[in-house]
Structures are given as structure tokens and as C-alpha cells.
Amino acid sequence: MARAASKISPPYGAALRSLALASVLLFGPATRAEQVVGNGEQRDEPITPIPTTADTRPDTIRLGERLFSDARLSRDSVVACSACHHLATGGDDDRALATGLDGRPLDFNTPTIFNVGLNARFDWRGNFRSLEEQNESALLDPRVMHDDWNSLLSELRADATYREAFAGAYGGDIDREQVLDALATYERSLVTPNGRFDRHLRGETGAITADEERGYQLFKSYGCIACHQGVNVGGNLFQQFGIFHDPFAGRPVTTEADLGRFTITGDPADRHVFRVPSLRNVALTAPYFHDGSAPTLNDAVEIMARNQLGRTLARDDIGLIVKFLNTLTGDYQGRSLADRTGNGPQ
Amino acid sequence: MKQVAWSVTAIAGLLLALTWLTIRATTPDTERHERILGALQTLILNESTLHRDVLRARDGLLSNYDPLVHSLKELRESGSTIQRLNDDADTEHSVRDLRAALDEQASLVETFKSRNALLQNSLRYFGYAIQQLDTDDSDQPAAIKGSVASEMLRFVGSPSQDNAASAGASLDRMAASASPSRQDISAVVAHGRLIVSTLPAVDGSVAGLLASPVGDRARAVQGRYLEQHAQALSEANHFRLVLYATAILLAGSLAYMFVRLGINARNLRARLRFENLIAEISTQFIALHPARMADGIRQGLARLAGHAGVDRAYLLESSADGRTLDRAHVWSADNLTAATNLDRLLDLVACWSLPTHQRQRCIQVSSVQSMPLSVERTALAARGIASWLCVPLWRGERRLGMLGFETTRREGDRTDDDIALFRTAGEIFANAIERDRTESENQALQTQVRRAQRLEAIGTLTGGIAHNFNNILGAVLGYSEMALGKLTADSQPGRYVREARQAGLRAQSVVDQMLTFSRRGEHAHRIVLMRSVLDEAVQLLRASLPATVVITVSTSAEADTAAVRGDATQLQQVVMNFCTNAAHAMDDRGTIDVALDTADVGQEAPLSHGTLAKGRYIRLTVRDTGRGIDPETLERIFEPFFTTRRAGTGLGLATVHGIIADHGGALNVSSRPGFGSRFEAYVAAADTDVHEADDTGAPVLTGRGETILLVEDDRPLMLLGEEMVASLGYEPVGFQSGARALANFQMDPDRFDLVLTDQVMPEITGMELALAVHRIRPEMPIILVTGQSAPLSRETLQAADICEVLRKPLLLQELGDALARHLPVRARRAVG
Fold first, then answer.
1. Any A CB within 8 A of B336 CB
2. Between residues B471 and B123, which one has the greater pLDDT?
3. Helix, strand, or coil here: B547?
4. SS (H, E, C) B236-270
5. Which residues of chain A have a CB within 8 Å of the CB of B65?
6. Within the 72-131 window of chain B, which residues sit less than 8 Å (CB to CB) from chain A?
7. What ipTM does the predicted assembly reach?
8. pLDDT in tens, B401-423
């Protein structure tokens, strides 16, 4: 249609293109819903499967991958992005708190890099709207990678292989936008589709066990689903940590990190407000919470139910819910992350 | 070079203008504009989607927030796209407002999501938990449960402040009534309280979102953009129109240039043909024999006329004054008569007074009819022509004549180029004429030089012969005289000797004339008033020629007082000889026009016989209407002994030639056989004009009645002599024969005071008479008159005691002087 429109004179073409765009927008959601029920079985679930899309920019993704694991992106070439985001495991570092350049712990737990592109906002406090912003912040943060663009770009330009790779992907001289775009593009490609639950959502019978199905029903009926929904099972809204009970009560020290979004907006309503994290691959990303204070999933489920839902769950129910959460582990590069790490479903 | 620079500048300017127009004609940044409009559309649509999804989420119909996130992302991206692409200062403010509204909307959505998640969860759980309480065996009074349920239901249905308060109160009652150990009840209370506290906030967020100005602002920006786009489009269309007009204009001028090019090429070809024609005519003239010049000119005219498409063409040669027609060469199509009144054209051109028709020194009359009323128009209209082109022919500043081209019906203008070519043609004709004239002049000059050389040679020869003969004759005459003295007059030998002497004297007269021709004579030149010379000669001529010959004399005012340095007697003879010849040519019947005027010769001028040096001349013209002279004769008329008359000596004109040459003059003769001849004698004018009281002026009355014996065998001359003597105050007694005069003298010798006698007479010569008179009165003064140029020998004169010899023709002055010279002594003596 757009092709046909291009043959018509510009003003009409513009109108037609707008019309086409409008139709896509109007019927877009419906189309998505149809994708969900691709196998014919209607499942109007709050959680949607990760779409399986082909990489459209393989050169750029390769370049981003190389940058992602290149320590030259940090000052004195100490650490690469991959130092904290272990792609072999859950896309995080298994620590309670991330480690800074100087070896000392940082303020927050390292979030997983997997499915990061499906998040609406980034970091625990949701202070970044785009991956590029988040990446640049991490690159320049004195505590994280402490690099600066001049030295970073000159280092990259000095490398003939980089010059070639950038020229192939973008053309022209290497610059800041290209580096950030390559990294973000790569990171967006780090999706873990085809998890068992996704297959279940797509109508594959036997993808999950009856217990896991029961766990999912509990997950919904207890109200976890109120926040952990959508394609990323969370990651698309903010929520206060501690609705019915104060999780920080009784703690000897509360850190600035515990104040959550308040430290960014200064709004009292944002006190202890965090971005709701995604539960994709959650079985692989222990310990949990912004400070890594919950060592196991069971702990995390129990704490969340008490503080957020005002409920105390029975041990069996927690077990079922954790079983369900295990089905959210997806495939990376065609293989289940669960297999790679050796952590089978519990 | 300058023109090239100008063209380059013009073309560069045109290209610049066209480029500018093209740029203005393209729709300004269509793609950017469409992207902005697209982004605005996306924005508006996503806002609607957002509203819908928010309402669905509020009602629990939307189970995840991805659609909201997606809409927010689209809105945000559209907003930044619009802000990035917008470069219009007017719209920028609206766009900033839009983005502020978007940010506000985004934060409202975030708040909504967070609270709605809690609310939806609590609503679901509250309903479930209340139900559980109902079914469970509980110590909780059913009334309280029912109250909580109904209050909460009312609050959720209508979340007013009152309903919130009563719902809160019922929850409080439930909490108070239950034991702390009942976790299910406390959960119900906790969730109920959360509902009570959150629901209004959620509804507030929803209301805020629905009231968000994003849509309105986006539509405002959109309206503005569409307006601008339409304006830009119309502007572009306007310039496209201008561009189109320019293209048409350029195409038009291109076509015009092609046409012009064609016309120019045609003109060039025509011009080339014209130039070739002129070159051919020129070549033709060069190769042309002078004798065929007239033919050549006529052919040239025909070809020119054929090319120019005229009906008549003519070349008029003017005489020296430039206005008089000398010769006309005429060509005319279908033999239209064009030769009439051509002589007036030269004058017309010379006095042309209409500058509008003068181009490049030519006269171009495109339409005779549309000329202003004027002499010129009248003259041309009289020729019955429609258009006229006149190319005057010049040689330096001298007019040679003109070329004329006429059309009889067609009118038409000529370009400057054409006229220039006609001028070139005119120059070729002028050259040809000039060459022709120069050649004839050269020929005339050669003829003249030949004549002069021959005359010179003959003169030398004649002079030598005459000199020798003169000496011989002197001896013959001398001895004859001496013999006569020894012989008796009546004796037969005496008679023979007298006859011999008589013949000798005649021979001497011939020799005398020969000497005059060869300019061997010695004559004192004095200032002579030409007018009086002419008058006296004419007087003599009238007396001597028959009455059937009429002589008219005209003298110009200047010539009236003009004088020459010369010999009056000789000059008189020139007049006499010319007139005598004229009378002969007319067989003594007709009019001889004699004219005297002056002529200033600016540069050396060749005449038919001789060349005039620069200077001022007195011109004597004698014109007759006689039989004329054929060219062969004309060639030789001034040679001595050349005569066409049986009785002629052939010395008359030769003498004239000698005299005129002696006076530094020249002769010009023209003649048309059958129509008459014209003789012109040019004599150098003296520096000063001579007036009265000059010694050559009117003779003084010297006589006192003295009686003069006059002897002349020719009766008219005798009568003339008597008249002259009488006019000088003497008493003339004339005789036609010496014998009768002597008889009369013998009868009364004292009656006469002086004897004036012709020398050459049939019976007794003047000399014989003188001897006879002196035998009677030895002291008697005797003046001898002779036509001979050479003086008689001194011995002879002394022997006869002749006082003085006067030359024929007698001049009054000379006669008076001579008489006065020889008479006064006697007169005084007589008185005394």
C-alpha cells in the first residue's frame, strides 16, 4: 500500500501513509492477541509469551556482543559489561549487590540482562527510559565503569578490527551514538523465548505440569499477577515496596537505596517505590530484591506475599508458586538457560 | 568580447533564476512534513488507545499493562519526533506544550498503574475474602460482615467521601469486633482499607488522564502543520506555475531565435549573392575594352536591376558641375520608357532637402506616395514611380553622377546592408566611369602632345626655311630695286624687273607669315586691353566681310577690363583669322558669335591644342554654324600650308597658333561636322586690369586738319583707313590705286602733308609710290603700311626715305601715334 502510495503525488501519499499507520495502530493490539492464540486455543492471560523475532541487524548485534564483553569499555580496561551480566547463567552476577570498579559493592543488586529490552524502564529505580541512557550511565559512572568518551572512542578507533566492524555496521568514523546503539541493539537481542510457560501459553499441552499450573493459578489468585504481568511478567510499572507491612521495619540500617525512586524524584509518594522487576528466568537470578536480601525464591515469595499482598502463604502454596516461577526460564541461543546452568526445574 | 561577457552573465543569471524557481517550486521538505504529520497521527491515535486501555485496566478488563507501556512509548517517541523535526518557530511553543502534557500524562499513567495494580488486587481479594468469611463458620457477627459488604459495595459503586467514611467505619467495626488472631478478617480489613484509600486516587488518575490536554494540543499542532503545509504547497504550486510560464517563455524565445536565425541566414545568402554579383560586375568592368564601356555599364545595370527586382535602372554621368547630364545609361524592364527627364534628376539629387530619406549618402524613397509634399515628391511622382533608390557617384568630393533604381508599382524599404551593397556597386560604376574618362583624357592628351610636337617640328623647319628665304629675298629685292633704277620704267626689261620684284615682295609676305608661325618674329609685348583689340578687329571685319555675315559680340564684365601682355596687332590678327575662317565655313552666310570672357584655371588643363598652366586667362571664343571640321582635318588645322581651300595659303591658323603660343596661351577647338565649330583662344591675363588713360587706351585726337594721302588697293580697307584718319582729326584723301594717287599728287603736290600707303598693291607698290612722291617733294613724310611680318630691309626703306612702317591691320592708336610723330614738325613749321 505504501509502495502504491509512493507513486501518487506527495500530499495524497502522505494522507494514505497516515491512514495505513492509523489502521496498524488501531488494530495493532488485536493483531498481537491473535499471535498469542496462534495455536487456536484462546488464552486471555495477563502474561504474554516472548515473541520470537529474527535478528534484523546481525552485524550490529555481533559488534554489540563484542563491545559487551570488551573490558576496554571500562577505565584501565578492568571490567566488561559481561563481568556482571553472566550470559551463561541468569544474566546477572549471583551477588546480593553488584561490585564496583574498585571491588567494593554498589548500592543495588545486579538485574538480569536477559529480556532487558522488554522492560519499560531500566534499573531498580526506573530512572532510565532507554537502554542507551542506562548504558551510557553505567559506562561513565565512576563507581561502575568510569570510562569517558574521548579515551573510549580513541581506543576503539585505534583497533582496526573495530574500525572495520563499525564501518560495516554504520559507515563513517566511530562515534558515541554508534557505540551506544551497538550495545543496546545487542542487549535487546538477549531475549529468552520459548520457556515452558510461554509454550503453555501458546497452547502446547504438557508444557507445564499440573503443579506448575496450580502454582500459576495461586500466583494469580493471591494477586501477584497484579504487578507481575505482561510479556516480561513485570518490568512495566512502579510499585511501593511494603503496602501492608513495612519490610524495612526492624532493620538496623536503611540505605539510601532503600528509599527507591524517592532519591530521584524527591516526591514523598515515591518513597520505597521501585520498578517492579521482571520474573522471567527468575529461578536463575537469586538472590532477590534490590538489595539481594532474599536468598531464595521461596523467601522472596513469602516476603512479597506478606508485605505486598497482606497475606501469609502456606508453605505448600509457596512451593507451588515457586514451581510455576521455574517455568518462566526461557531459551537463550536455542538452549534452555536451565540446562546451561544445570539448574533444572525444582 | 564585450558581447560574450554580456551573454555569459545573462545565461548565468537565467540559470540562477531558474534554479531558484525550481527550488521554490519543490514542495518544501515533504518527507519531513509527512513524518511530523504521521507522528501527530500516531500520537493522537495512541492517546485514544491509552484512554481506552486505562479505562479497561480500571475496570479490570485489561490484565496487563504492556499495552499502556506500548502506548506511552509511542506517545513519547512521537512527541520527540515532532519536536526534533519541527523547525518552525511558531509551532515550537505548541510542541513544547504538547511534550509537557505528554510528560504529565506519562507520570499520571505510572501513578495509575501502581495504584490500579493494588486496587485491582485488593478488589479481587476483598470479594473473595468476604465470601470466605460468609461461608466459614465464624464468630464474626453476620450483621457486621453484611454491613462491611454492603458499605464497600456502595463505596465501590459510588466512591464519594461519605461512602468512604461509612465504609471505613464499618471496616473499623469489623476490625474491632474480631480477635487479632483472625488473620483472614484482618486481611479483609486491610484490603478494604486499601480499597477505600486507593480507589478515589485511581479514579482521580483516570479523570486526570482523560482530561489530559495531549489530544487537544496534538490536534492544534496538527492543524497548524496542515495549514502550513497547504500554504507551502500553494506557494510551491505558484512557483511551479511561474516555472512553467518561464519555460513557455523560453520555448517561445527559442522559436523566435530559430526564426530569426532562418531570416538571417536567408539575408546572408541574399547578401552573398549580391556581393558575388557586384564582384562579377567589377570583374567585367576590369576586363572591358574602353570602347565597349557603355555596353558594360548597361549590362551591369541590367544585372543589378534583375537582382534588386526594380523596373528601371540608370546611370547618369554628370558634367563637371555635377548637375548637368552628360551621358545617360538606361536599362528598363519590358522597355518602359525611362529616359525622359533624367537631366532633372541630377539637379534634384544635388539639392535634395529631405533628410529622412537620406541614408549612407544615398537617397532611399520607399514610397513616393507617402513622401511629404515637396519639390522632390513632385519630381518623382512625375516619373510615375512607386519607389526610388539613388546612389550618388562620387570621386572624392566631385560628383560624377548617380545610379538610380526605380520600381513602378511595388513599394518597399531596403535594409542598411542592402544600401551599403548598392553603394559598393555605385563605387564600382564610379570607378569604371572614372577609368573611362581618364582613358579618354589620356588619349586626348596624347593626341595633343603629338600635335604639339608636330607643330613644333614644323615650326622649327618653317622658321629655318623662312629665314633663309628672307635673306635670299632681300638680295632679290635689293637687286631688283637697283635694276629698276637703271631701267626706264616703260621699257620692257623695266616692266619685267618690276614684276619680278613684285613677286619677290609677295614671297616676302609669305615668309613673314611663316616667321610669325614659327615665332621667330620679334615683337615688343605691351599691356593690351583685350576688349579694344576685339572691337577694332570686329570693326575691320564688319567692313571687310559681306553683309550676309553677322557678327555678334558678347563680353563678360570681367573681360571688359581684362588686359593681356602682348602685341595688339597680332592679337587682332587672331580675331580676324578666326572670323574669316568662320565666314568661309558658312559660305559667307550666317552668324558668327564672338565672345570674350575670363577663365580661372585651377590646375593644368589639357585643351585640344595645347595645355593651360594654372592661372587666369582671357578666353576668346568664336563660334560658327558652318560645315564643321572632320576629326582628321581637326588634327592638322594649325599646321602651316595645310588648307582645305583652293586659294588658301594654309598659313592663317598656323599664324594664330604661333601668336597664341607666343602669348603663353593655348587653343581649344571643337567641332561637329555639319553643325559648326567653336574656336577658343586662351591668353594669359595680365596681372593688372587696364583702365582708361592707359597708353593703349583711346587714341588722342592729334590732327589739325592736315591732309593725308591714303592709298589702299582694297576698297573696304581704304574706306576704313579714311575713317580712322578722319577720326584722328586729319583730312584723308583716299585712292584705290597708286597710279591715280600719284597723278593726283603731281597735280597739287603741296596739298598733302603726309602719305600713308599700302605697300602691296597690284600696279605700283607703296615703295614705288614713295620714290615717285619724293622725286616731286623729297621732304614729304611717307608711312608705309604692310601686311608682312618681317620688316623691309633697312636699306630699302632708307632708299625710299620711308618714315615708318605700320603693320596691317591698322590700329587706330598706332596710326595716331605714327601720324603725330611725323607731322608735328611740319605743322609747327607751317604754323611757324
1. no
2. B123
3. coil
4. HHHHHHHHHHHHHHHHHHHHHHHHHHHHHHHHHHH
5. 229-230, 236-237
6. 72-74, 76, 110-111, 113-114, 117-118, 120-122, 124-125, 128
7. 0.84
8. 888 888 888 887 888 888 888 88
